[in-house]
Each structure stands twice: as C-alpha cells, then as structure tokens.
Amino acid sequence: MRILFVLSGNNREIGFVSGAAARDSAVSEPGPLPGAAVLPVKNPVHQAATLRKLGHDVDLYFIRGRGLAGYLSAVPGIRRKIMQGRYDIIHAHYSLTAFAVSLACTRKIIVSLTGSDLMGVTLMLPVTRFFSRFRWKKVIVKTPEMKTRLKCGDITVLPNGVDTEMFAPSDKSEARKRLGLRRDKIVLFVADPSRYEKNFPLAQEAVRRTGRDDTTLLPVFGVPHELMPDYYNAADVLLLTSLWEGSVNSVKEAMACNLPVVSTDVGDVRINTSGLDGYYVTGFDASAISTKVDEAIRKYKPVNARDRIFELKLDSASVAGRLIEIYNSVNS
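Structure (tokenized):
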C-alpha cells in the first residue's frame, strides 16, 4: 500500500537525523533542507516507520509555515506531491494540515487529530466539525473524550502506539551517567514549559511543596528522540500537570520503562494506569500533587507497567495493525 503522511514541519519538539536517515524516511519538503533533516520526534514519524516495517510504502510531506496563511500556502505543493505519488491513502495529521490537504485534493482523506486540536479552547472547532462531516472520509482521535467533543463524522478512537523496543527499562545509574545527571532525585517533566496547556507553574509549585532538598524538577523537550529512554530510566518519577491532553505519549513511554507517574486527570491517563502501583492521578491542587510526588519518591519500589502496554495493545505493532484495518476499510 502506498501511503502519504502530510504533517506539520513546525513542531518545536524536534529531533535530528542524518542525511542518510532522512533519505530512508522518504522526507519530502518544499525547498532544500540545510544540513540534517528535521523531524518531529514522536508520532506520526514513528508510526510511518512502523508501517514500513510491515511492508508498506510511506512518504512524509512536511508543511513549513505557521498560521492559517502558512498552511494555505502549502496547498499547491501538496497537490503536486499527491499527483506525482499515486497514493492509495492520504493521511493528514492535525487539523490545520488536514484543512490544507482538503483544499489540495478530492481524494479520500484520513485525518488524525490530537488533544490540542479538540480539547483546548479553540475557535477552529466548528470548522473542524464541518470538514469532519462533509470532507474527511475517516477521523482518528486519541480518546473517547475527544470523540464526544468532535461529535460528527466517521470517528475512530485509536491512541498513539509506543515503540517498546526503544522504550524499555534499563539501569538507572548507567542512564544518568550517559546523560551527565547528578544523583539527586529527579522529577521528569516531558514538555515545553512555555506551552500554556502544559501548566508548568503547577509542577514547579508542587515540587517546591515537597520540601525536599534532594529533588530536582527536570523539564525535557527538544532533545533527540533516541535520548528519551535514558531520561525516563534516569528519573524517579514523571510529573504531568497538563490542563488537557489526548493520548499522552510521555505517560505511555514512562510505563514502557516502568517509571512511576503522577498526573492530572487528563486524556487517557486514568484509563491506562488504573490499578497500577506507583501511578497516581490527581486534580489540579498543588498540595495533592506534591503529596503524590513525595510518595512516589519516598516509597519507591520497582513497578511493572510495561505489561499493561501490551495488554491494552498500545505497542506500535498493534496500533499499526489497527491503522491498516482503517486504511483497508476506506479503500474497500
């Protein structure tokens, strides 16, 4: 099956791959890339790689340009790419990207939406609903809550998968040595602190209230993706204080590495971690979060959340198999 992924090239959480790796990834962008290619570190690039392992031909087309005007300026390039590629599936990732693809072609379009597309306060929601009802063949969302929010169109709930080969438990001291981290207790915050919905000030206040002099709150973003397993394995707990989320990649990656998690009740965190020792879901009260962070550190014992990833079929191969079923249903 020939598949085209169309996605934003403006993601601030980026990793770098060599020119050879870029060629292997079939990266397509309007204009030359100086030096190394720039790829978003998480889905859908990893999703494309998993589909390739299953024998499918996947190209990536990145839109460079911000705001509605930037995406609309990409329409001619998208149209040329689609006409040249003879693709069986056009899969657009994120709402603005999907709007541009919808203007570029009349083909059957599959769209993946994220938490920020639907769960935030957005003026684009009515437009998204319009395209979902009248233009997009299938819409993939990450959680049942997102499906309820969108309300219309042919909607399927399919969370992002975890690369369980990359994200796996390893020795903490060795991970810290590779990263050059100290021996303090580490509370990991995997997000850009400047993003409003990530609610970093709440994380800061919660860690401050633990009163622990031996604890460091470590924000991590914009690092090469291949380093992330070391950060999970070097940490003592992952802290998520987001105001909203879809399917939370960082929590699932932490689970795959058996790292304890303290999280606000957003996205699919409660569903995925229910009943697991070392995994705490809280409200937005700094004192309550602080108590759980302290408990996760003070009462540390080995946790086993990795098996839950496979039980819920959230590993990459399982999610890719479900995605292929969606593609086949559109082409039938």
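The domain at 172-311 is CATH 3.40.50.2000 (Rossmann fold). The first strand starts at residue 2 and ends at 8.
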